[in-house]
Write a structure and sequence with these properties.
The complex is a heterodimer of chains A (175) and B (434). Chain A has helices at residues 2-23, 29-37, 44-48, 84-96, 114-134, 159-165, and strands at residues 69-71, 102-106, 142-146, 167-171. By secondary structure, chain A is of the alpha+beta class. Chain A has one domain: 2-Layer Sandwich (60s Ribosomal Protein L30, Chain: A), CATH 3.30.1330.60. Chain A is globular, with a radius of gyration of 16 Å. The termini of chain A are far apart. Chain B has 434 residues and is mainly beta. In chain B, 12% of the residues lie in helices and 44% in strands. Chain B has helices at 2-21, 56-66, 90-95, 141-157; strands at residues 24-30, 36-40, 70-72, 100-108, 114-122, 127-136, 166-174, 180-188, 195-200, 204-209, 215-220, 227-232, 238-240, 248-253, 259-264, 271-276, 281-284, 292-297, 303-308, 315-320, 327-328, 336-341, 347-354, 357-364, 369-372, 380-384, 390-397, 400-407, 413-418, 422-428. Chain B has a five-stranded antiparallel sheet, with no helix packed on it. Chain B has a five-stranded mixed sheet with strand order 3-2-4-5-6, covered by helices on one side. In chain B, β18 (292-297) and β19 form a beta hairpin. In chain B, α2 packs across α4 (141-157). The longest helix of chain B has 20 residues, at 2-21. The N and C termini of chain B lie far apart (56 Å). Classes of the chains: A alpha+beta (175), B mainly beta (434). Chain A binds chain B through residues 1, 4-5, 8-9, 75, 103, 110-116, 118-120, 122-123, 143-148, 150-151, 155-157, and chain B through 16, 20, 173-174, 178, 180, 203, 205-206, 221, 224-226, 245-247, 249-250, 263, 265, 269-270, 291, 293-294, 307, 313-314, 335, 337-338, 351, 353, 358, 377-378, 380-381, 396, 399, 420, 425.
Chain lengths: 175, 434
């Protein structure tokens, strides 16, 4: 049983590390620049018209739609600038596909009390939900769900783990 | 060799399997030097036909030791083992430095039942302080032992004992298929006899006792959205409270059992609501654009305290249970949350951040003095024993979460470990109703 847990932790860690390099921290200028590059064309045409990509637009690695997890600062529900293009793309995608629904799942790190963290993670989810509707997503397309600190992706008592757990996940149930 | 190995492996499997059900193991990590010496002599079972499997005196001894206020004499140091007053030579026990002495026996009663008889003596005066016969049967001997612990504790400290109470808590572990498995369990206050009352592949949280101790309300994410359930412990039957879009969380029973305070976010941000069990109606208590959550009732049922970040950071506020204006209670530090009243209503315990560490603190309401009680860095979910003597909470232990307890004066500390997974969000039951 213990070995299994360890395995799971290390699996989580390795995927979390991958997440680290992809999304970058607050201080990783390179990461945000790459995302800002596609910022001007944050309309659906730019995203769906990916040159050689024939898969589902939500899976296109060249599109901001491929990013479905965004991260937050401690005790904050403000969306950081490097994620604005990602959320704009998802909002526009929803506006263009009004049959598509998304669950906006808010999470918190383990610090602080559990029910307060549920409320904090809901604030994060609702901020994201609002940004999606600003792009034209209908109210019934995005549902905010708050999980607090109950479902961490990384188990660790340090900032490296905590920053990966303070997140909002965009889950397309039908996708 | 091979065979031995195989047996070893099998044993290992069985051991890990039995650990899976999980018993809480309690260790005292800090006691007090002023603990009273007491000799609890093994109870005689000579008159009972057949085997008595429960060591009543050992349970009493463990209970009293766990309180931190008593120091039971080890059995090896006992010169003889009297089981009735006539056999006691008080001078022997004075020589051993004992203040008090307990003798007793388990006796057969009518219809295959049992009676547990005990006497508590003051060793120096050579006087009986109290003595009772407690009815029992072979299945309720542990309960009878805890009852006796309560009677001894009350006689010697003047404070009601809480050994016959239970604790509820949340566990999480990864099941055989790697899926997360969340449970709420209920165990005796000494960690014995843990029973799972609900199991889910999605999180369960915030167990809250009804004031009579017969029901437990909790939050469950089954179906991936939060709902509040109230489960009758005896039958296992549960009722889902009407749930709303957004948060359905933080249930807290009013002391008279007629209302349930809870957190809903159906009207925007998280706010405190009160559900009337009789009329089945909801009433909104707080209205702010901030987070309001974690309600808890004062013992007289007239006030509700809760966590709010309306001032920018989470702090504790108090509001009349009928509504009105909320007043801020905490001013020390930038993070105070999940407060609950001590049973006498004079203190509240809460999570308090100091130097980036989340600790259990108590706030004395009359003076506003904050007393930091725990020593961990991620301590949470403090819950008072119904006699106010101890506070149970969760703390991190490496990558695991375990339970810990601290006396309300901070002098006695315990750790409660559960093998096989995390254990958190302890909730101490009210007193047992006899």
């Amino acid at each position: 049983m213990k070995t299994y847990q360890k395995l799971l932790v290390s699996l989580c860690l390795s995927s979390a590390l991958a997440g680290c390099s992809m999304f970058g921290g607050d201080e990783q200028a390179g990461g945000s620049a790459a995302i800002n590059g596609s910022n001007g064309g944050a309309s659906t045409t730019g995203l769906n018209g990916a040159d050689n990509f024939t898969g589902h637009p939500l899976d296109n690695p060249a599109s901001p739609l491929a990013t479905k997890v965004i991260y937050f600062a401690f005790d904050s529900s403000a969306v950081e600038p490097q994620y604005e293009a990602v959320l704009a793309a998802h909002g526009a995608y929803l506006a263009a596909n009004n049959g598509v629904a998304v669950i906006v799942e808010g999470h918190a790190d383990e610090r602080g009390t559990r029910e307060y963290n549920v409320a904090l993670s809901e604030k994060r989810a609702k901020t994201v939900q609002n940004l999606l509707s600003l792009q034209g997503a209908a109210g019934n397309q995005a549902e905010a769900v708050a999980l607090g600190e109950e479902k961490p992706v990384v188990l660790g008592h340090d900032e490296k783990s905590w920053r990966l757990n303070r997140r909002v996940e965009l889950i397309y149930p039908a996708h | 060799m091979n065979r031995v190995k195989k047996i070893g492996a099998l044993l290992g499997f069985l051991l890990s399997f039995s650990a899976w059900g999980g018993a809480l193991k309690i260790e005292i990590t800090q006691g007090v030097s002023s603990a009273q010496p007491i000799a609890i002599i093994p109870f005689s079972t000579a008159q009972v036909v057949g085997e008595v499997w429960v060591d009543v005196a050992q349970i009493i001894s463990d209970d009293l030791a766990r309180s931190g206020r008593f120091k039971p004499l080890p059995r090896l140091d006992m010169l003889n083992k009297p089981s009735s007053a006539a056999q006691v030579n008080f001078r022997n026990w004075q020589a051993l430095g004992q203040d008090n002495l307990v003798v007793g026996k388990v006796l057969p009663a009518a219809n295959g039942r049992l009676t547990v008889q005990f006497q508590l003596f003051d060793v120096y005066k050579g006087e009986q302080l109290t003595g009772f016969s407690v009815p029992a049967n072979s299945a309720s001997l542990r309960a009878a032992a805890h009852r006796i612990s309560d009677l001894i504790y009350e006689k010697l400290t003047g404070q009601k004992g809480a050994f016959s109470t239970r604790i509820a808590y949340v566990t999480s572990a990864h099941g055989v298929n790697g899926q997360a498995e969340y449970k709420i369990q209920v165990a005796d206050a000494d960690g014995f006899g843990a029973k799972t009352i609900v199991t889910s592949s999605e999180p369960v949280m915030s167990p809250a006792w009804s004031p009579r101790g017969d029901k437990l309300s909790y939050v469950s994410y089954e179906g991936r959205r939060s709902s509040i359930y109230t489960q009758t412990l005896r039958s296992g039957q549960r009722e889902k409270l009407r749930s709303f879009k957004g948060i359905n969380g933080a249930p807290a029973w009013s002391p008279d059992g007629s209302q349930l305070a809870l957190t809903l976010s159906k009207d925007g941000s998280a706010d405190i609501y009160v559900y009337n069990v009789i009329s089945r109606s909801f009433r909104r208590l707080t209205r702010s654009y901030a987070i309001d959550t974690e309600p808890s009732w004062s013992p007289d049922g007239r006030q509700i305290i809760f966590t709010s970040d309306r001032g920018g950071k989470p702090q504790i506020y108090r509001i009349s249970a009928n509504g009105g204006k909320a007043a801020r209670l905490t001013f020390e530090g930038t993070y105070n949350a999940r407060a609950s009243y001590s049973p006498d209503g004079k203190n509240v315990t809460m999570v308090h951040r100091v130097n980036g560490q989340y600790r259990i603190a108590s706030l004395e309401l009359a003076t506003g003095f904050t007393n930091i009680l725990s020593t961990g860095s991620l301590d949470e979910s403090p819950s008072y024993a119904p006699n106010g003597s101890m506070i149970l909470y969760s703390t991190s232990d490496g990558l695991k979460t375990i339970l810990a307890a601290v006396s309300s004066d901070g002098k006695v500390r315990q750790k409660l470990r559960l093998q096989g997974g995390d254990v958190r969000e302890p909730a101490w039951s009210p007193f047992k109703q006899y």
